[in-house]
Amino acid sequence: MTAASQPIAKSAAVTRMQAAFEHHTGSSMPVRQQAFALFSHNGFPGTRDEQWKYTNLRRLEAREFGTGQPGTPYQPEILKTADALQMVFVDGHYRSELSNVPVIAGLQITTLSELQQSDQTRLSEILAIPGNHRCRFVALNTALTEDGVLIEAGPGTKLDCPLVLDFFWSDAQWSLMAHPRIVIRAGEHSKLTVIERFTGSGTTVHFNNGVTTAQLAEGAHLEHCRIQNENSSSFHIGLLYAELAEQATLLDHQINFGAALARMDIHVLLNGRDSRATLNGLQFATGTQHHDTHLQVEHCVPHTQSNEDYRGIADQRGRIVFNGKVHVHEKAIKTDAQQSSRNLLLSSTAEIDTKPELEIYNDDVKCAHGATVGQLDANALFYLRSRGLDESQARALLTHAFANHIIAQLPVAELREQLTDAGHVRFGAQLESAP
Amino acid sequence: MLSIKDLHVNVGDKQILKGITLEVRAGEVHAVMGPNGSGKSTLSQVLAGREGYEIISGSITFNGHDLLALSPEQRAREGVFLAMQYPVEIPGVNNVYLLKAGLNAIRKHRGLAELDAFEFLSLIKEKMKLMQMDESFLNRGVNEGFSGGEKKRNEILQMAVLEPMLALLDETDSGLDIDALRIVANGVNSLRSKERAIIMVTHYQRLLDYITPDYVHVLAGGQIIKSGDKTLALELEQRGYDWLTQPGFQKQSLSGARDA
Ligand SMILES: Nc1ncnc2c1ncn2[C@@H]1O[C@H](COP(=O)(O)OP(=O)(O)OP(=O)(O)O)[C@@H](O)[C@H]1O
Ligand SMILES: [Mg+2]
């Protein structure tokens, strides 16, 4: 018997998840049972796993998390977004009375809690673990998800307004976990924008483990954003998994501002000729925050394009991890893959680990990657100070300018403003807005 | 207003300024000329508070303050302004934002009320008209993608808005076309007053045709080797610097120039 096949002694953390699973309304569904078995067999990943080398989950494992109840009387302060469809989730449960989902031709929106009640066959189908994903958090999400949404845009449906998914925690004094599952099916030549926004408050330690899967049919265009602004005690884990057919385009923005520990995995499969993925991201870690993003882009067929533009800022004792892997399959000739990871190290106690990786199995490609870790430009700092600005204000402005390169590309004005405001607070100075 | 006494400055092990003494009173305009690499920009940067220069000896007092003890922003708030030889591009920091933040920091320091967005906008529009700059420059990043001449014009726009007591212009005329030179000179002259002083570094007489200096100094090898009035600049235009750096030439003190 080899060591790998020996049953691993279950950790207390896995046993606690087991209890949560047994109480789950869907625990009799085979898809969830298989997923839970997979999770409980492997447990939480440790730092010996190459993918988790820099991200230690000990603190997450040490904690006990309860599950939120539907209908907790809690009214979050919702940032209304003009002309947006808005779906509000509290402690992982959809709250229709706080949401605004008008009927739109060609767009079908179904919550997972609804499917759990009415159509478990359908639910099982959409919960299937995407692409045999080995990530254990996906298995945990599949087993434990209570709610989420299935978004289906029919062929040719073009949405003018974004769909905002707002996630809040109630003011519970005990730690909660939520495993939201978002499933996006973008039909042929459809066009839509989906924004996931996670807003924390207070100091209670929560655990969000979200999974978003997106299937883009021929010519579909999806713009997706994830704005992570959890409170700085919480844990936030997430996966975006996307498959693109011919001529489909994905434009993704990941913003990591909050949480004590945040880990995002972005896994994109370019499965169709002329499909294109643009992946932007900004991570900002200060205090003792730890932000980790792992990207994996697979060019599976000829004539596909990917463009990654990630920026990281680490201040105080913050820690940024970026791993961007581009995998060009043997037959994927004429691949165009560009990757850039630019980072600002603002203090001597902060740390940034960035690693672009290219795995190319044919010669006929155009690939480039670059990674930099630097400090604020001394010339620019002097220039601003010589015009009367405090050193702290000058530093904040330059940091913000660096971040704004990513923020400015977000699709909705309110979102950009919200992040600019949040950014100003985080960048260490209260800056008045420009006239 | 400004009193520089026997200033010695090094960068690393290299001596760059080797004993500069200069007196500037309110209302005066001084031109500083001299060969490339003689230390003119170093002097301007040291006055504005740029880090990286080692002050070996000497002193600088500005309106009674020990200037060397002040941070760059404190100097700016006390009224020192440097129009840089090579203005920095700062993408992502809005031009108008910088101006407003700078002006309000300076006003606050002087005990004046900060300007609100409306008051600021009308002020800036007036100054842009003076500099004949298009308003579209306002919302661009600081100097981002500006042409060489546009950058210089932007420096003078900032000066016009911040209204310094002591303006240091480091080759603001270099790279300007004939019309722009006139506009920039106009901007500088509009600031000229009994209370203010201007030190301008230049290589060319043509700037001095527009802004008449009270004194002209020649800085060479880290020292002021000659001072005179505006006729010195004309002489330099004719003869270059060689005759001044010949052995046997007597270094002339500034007071000597004044006595003359
Ligand atoms: N950071 C530095 N490191 C090394 N040498 C320096 C540094 N800064 C200035 N120098 C040197 O000091 C000397 C004076 O430079 P400075 O820029 O002050 O000259 P300048 O008189 O302004 O010349 P120009 O007319 O070409 O603008 C030069 O020889 C320059 O190379
Ligand atoms: Mg110079």
Can you offer a commentary on this structure?
The complex is a heterodimer of chains A (435) and B (260). Chain A has two domains: 11-385, no CATH class; 386-435, no CATH class. Helices cover 21% and strands 37% of the residues of chain A. Chain A is built from nine helices and 21 strands. In chain A, helix 2 (30-42) packs antiparallel against helix 6 (136-144), helix 7 (378-386) crosses helix 8 (391-407) and helix 8 (391-407) runs antiparallel to helix 9 (413-426). The longest helix of chain A has 17 residues, at 391-407. The radius of gyration of chain A is 21 Å and the shape is globular. In chain B, helix 5 runs parallel beside helix 6 (178-191). The model of chain B is unreliable at 253-260 (pLDDT under 50). The chains are: A alpha/beta (435), B alpha/beta (260). At the A-B interface, helix 7 and helix 8 of A face helix 2, strand 7, helix 3, helix 4 and strand 8 of B. The structure holds adenosine-5'-triphosphate and magnesium ion.
